[in-house]
Amino acid sequence: MTLKTSHPLPGFYKVAHYIRLSDETRIWRSPRGDPSVLQLMVGTWKLLEPEHPKLVISFSGDEERFSLEGAKKKTFMAGLIRTVESTDAWLLTDGSDAGISKVVGQTVNEMQTTTKTDGRLMPYIKCIGVASYGSCRNKDSLVNAEEEIESEQKHFYDVTRTSGRQARIALNGDHTHFLLVDDGFHNSLASADSFRSRLEEAIQKTMPEGLDIPVVMLLLDGSLRAIDRCLKALRRRVPVVVVQGSGRAADLLAEAVHNHDDTRSEDAALKEILSKVPIYIDDLDDHKHMECAKKVLECCKTGNKITVYDIDHDSNMDKAILSALLTGTADPEDELQLAFEWDRADVAESSIFPQIDDNADLSGIMKQALREEKTDFVDLLISWGFDISKFLTMEELRGLYNLVCHLMPSLSLHSPHVKGTGNHSLCGIVFSM
């Protein structure tokens, strides 16, 4: 589907792919090759190309009341950019043109490039919206008039015109793909949230059923719905990064995590959280206050699966995301490999090296660091006692020299990236404003 958005240049269109599907659609990949959401994403949309992502970031927050301005917004966007650049991460939101989804879209717009895949220009950064079809504005414009559709058929989508007083979610034109979840109801968000939770679980499941890509959820601001999303993620062993300082649900959960004590009685802990709920979240009735407090307490019981990041005092959001991925990882050498892929020698030094056995074989990491010219890791390995004189044998030196000679002719080549800007139907949208 193709979406037409406003742009300084007349006739400029932003293009996104979408599919409208039932909330009961199969997500996991089947050994028999049966149709599924993951098969669509990998086989049809080619989302694993040109680079296989090392991470999927799923955002949870308030799509209506969320506001992140000034220094906080700059810190968030800078941290997100560094994370995407390090990991080729997919970004997963509710797809709306408001709140955290809109801020994520703005960040994508700043750094988006295109790459040629199968002779076609495709967006390099994958920003995927999982939205409720029944709650979309102007959803009638997304329906195919003909039963038989062409693969290149486009739909023009106006994000400013409303159709009906209850239709309140406009799709954001900076997203690249949309999964529009249809449960047959109008203005129902629960099915889309549940579908997204199952999608996150499938993405991180090992191959061949899943994609074996780690998922991290970021909580910014939000209300009870955002807390519920985080709890579902934690139950599926998806780590959560709580952005303290972003407001409401995020600040409530951050404080609860800081104050949580396993030795206290559950009643005492629940009572303390309940007293804080109306301070942070002002749009809930008394019954919802108790529901929220219980869910916050259950989140706190997951312990090491929650990482609190203070956006007011720390500019390294990407480090917090990496720390969340490392939490609970059994093998320090696997953690070191992950830190290396992210090029975060600081995290390796402070959090990983103290756990590594003195007899561990680090020659593989040293070889990668030399070949990829990651000097911080070379220095770190040597400072921790790696014997470089024993490692750099004549054979190893010859291999490194040959590698450099092999790469030299390609140094002048241009970058392949071009700067750029119950019912199933697969199409493209053109956004207009």
From TrEMBL:
A GO molecular function term, named singly, is: ligand-gated calcium channel activity
How does this protein sit in the membrane?
Answer: Multi-pass membrane protein
Compartments reported by the entry: Membrane
Q: Keywords for this entry?
A: Ion channel, Ion transport, Membrane, Transmembrane, Transmembrane helix, Transport
Q: Does the keyword Membrane apply?
A: yes
Chief place of localization:
membrane
Where in this chain does the record put each TRPM-like domain?
359-404
Q: Name one Pfam family in it.
A: TRPM2
Query: What are the TRPM SLOG domain coordinates in residue numbering?
Result: 16-299
Got a GO cellular component term for this one? plasma membrane
Q: What is the protein name for this chain?
A: Uncharacterized protein
Please give the organism.
Penaeus vannamei (Whiteleg shrimp)
Taxonomic lineage of this organism?
Eukaryota, Metazoa, Ecdysozoa, Arthropoda, Crustacea
